[in-house]
Specification:
It is built from 14 helices and 18 strands. By secondary structure, it is an alpha/beta fold. A hairpin with a 5-residue loop joins strand 2 and strand 3. The radius of gyration is 20 Å and the shape is globular. The two termini are 37 Å apart. 53% of the residues are buried.
Length: 455
């Protein structure tokens, strides 16, 4: 079913499950590829054939902000979503449609996760404090919706996302590798590991934080441990690529008029205090568009949005879906399309309801389910993957493609993204994604100078 057909017949919420079991050799273990069994797994280190490295030369990771799967892909055909939420009392409440740019925020730190998750019952969302006004640039909304955590975004606001998911791959069992908010999420993005939880106690995160800044560590019992300065010496994907003589880029927004950059690599001294900081961490983030237009795309690329284009609640802007589509369209219409895999995911659940209990694999995760899409000439067409993935599945995919070592426990265990691809198919010609906001808008957009997420 196409996105257009879906939008014209919203009453049909999802297709029935269609089990399809594929048996592979015992050397690769038994795996369920393309079935609707929710516990399907892959062997993470052997699921990619050598053909991947010969056909995929570029991996682009686009990271958006603060949306659960039930919130952003409500009713997507073939995906596991619901229209009602269960409360702590056992009663239910219907999910309500709210604009993607709504002027509120929701708690999503460690205690919020523990409350929402409630030992796997996923019924504590009504106990985590509810929405608070999102006050930016000295102004606050005059009112905020009640029960905003129990909401979804209307598909009419996310047409580019539904179009990408309808034509390529959407994963409905993608969980975050962390159980808290953005600072920790972005450690897993580039280092596949973390020792901290929640947020630094200053507005600048990372090695550029002022002296005295601390961020809590996480103890084995999921209690807050001693605070440490938010600058670490861990190996990263960037440093591993450097060691192999391979190029990479991290496109990130400026966060003030003094030139600070909101990049995960600011938290890693091995990158922040090397030449990589000025040559491979690039701001503004819109340069990804002009670089591709000019004939340049690094083997590994990360893209973080400006606040206005982030999908974070309170932006007062519905531009996020078109921002992502602008990057996809630019790459899709370039010389790089036939050798690229684009991965789009959201860094945490943002406090929004989701009904699927995340498996608990260690003290850091897994966290609440978020959306993930794969767009590539080799991606399966109109496919919803039910394989269990996590944030570090993206790192594991990059490691497999480019022959890098694993960085930690999470990327060692994480299922690879192989289920999303069909390398036997001829590379598909790119079909442009409809944007409600044109690419030219982003190329000339005045930066907000706000971090895409402060929580």
């Amino acid at each position: 079913m196409s996105c257009l057909t879906y939008l014209q017949s919203k009453a049909r919420r999802y297709f029935p499950a269609r089990p399809a079991l594929l048996l592979v050799t015992t050397a690769l273990l038994s795996t369920c590829l393309g079935c609707n069994t929710k516990t399907a797994t892959l062997n993470p280190r052997t699921s990619l054939s050598p053909e991947f490295s010969s056909k995929i030369k570029h991996v682009v990771v686009i990271v958006q902000e603060n949306r659960s799967f039930d919130n952003l892909f409500h009713g997507f055909p073939g995906a596991d979503t619901v229209s009602t939420a269960t409360l702590s009392s056992g009663s239910t409440i219907p999910l309500q449609p709210l604009p993607i740019e709504g002027g509120y925020d929701l708690g999503h730190e460690l205690n919020d996760f523990l409350t929402d998750w409630n030992n796997g019952a996923m019924n504590g969302f009504d106990k985590d404090g509810g929405p608070t006004p999102a006050c930016y640039s000295g102004s606050c909304p005059t009112s905020i919706p009640a029960n905003a955590e129990f909401s979804y975004v209307e598909p009419s606001e996310t047409v580019p996302y539904f179009a990408m998911a309808s034509n390529y791959v959407l994963a409905d069992r993608f969980f975050t590798s962390q159980i808290d908010s953005s600072f920790d999420a972005h450690q897993f993005l580039v280092a596949a590991r973390s020792s901290i939880v929640n947020l630094p106690n200053s507005s600048i995160w990372g090695c550029d934080a002022p002296p005295g800044t601390t961020v809590p560590t996480l103890l084995p019992n999921r209690q807050l441990g001693p605070g440490v300065f938010p600058c670490f010496s861990d190996a990263t994907l960037g440093s591993e690529l450097d060691a192999k003589g391979m190029d990479w880029r991290f496109y990130a927004p400026a966060i003030d008029d003094l030139g600070d950059i909101w990049s995960a690599y600011d938290a890693f001294s091995t990158i922040r205090y090397s030449s990589d900081w000025t040559t491979k961490v690039i701001s503004p983030e819109t340069q990804i568009l002009s670089d591709v237009q000019g004939g340049f795309l690094a083997p590994v690329t990360w893209v973080v949005p400006d606040f206005a284009n982030s999908d974070h609640p309170g932006t007062s802007s519905p531009a996020g879906p078109s921002w992502v589509a602008s990057i996809v369209n630019e790459i899709g219409q370039s010389q790089f399309w036939d050798s690229t895999a684009i991965v789009v995911y959201w860094d945490d659940w943002g406090g929004f309801y989701d009904h699927v209990p995340p498996p608990q694999l260690d003290d850091w995760g897994l966290g609440v389910r978020v959306p993930m899409m794969v767009i590539s000439p080799y991606a399966k067409r109109g496919y919803v993957s039910h394989v269990q993935y996590e944030s570090t599945s993206v790192a594991a995919f990059i490691e497999s493609i480019f022959g890098l070592s694993t960085l930690g426990v999470a990327d060692s265990r994480a299922n690879n993204l192989g289920d999303c691809f069909d390398l036997l198919q001829k590379p598909r010609a790119f079909e442009p994604i409809t944007q409600t906001i044109p690419t030219d808008h982003f190329l000339h957009q005045k930066p907000s100078n706000r971090p895409p997420d402060t929580d």
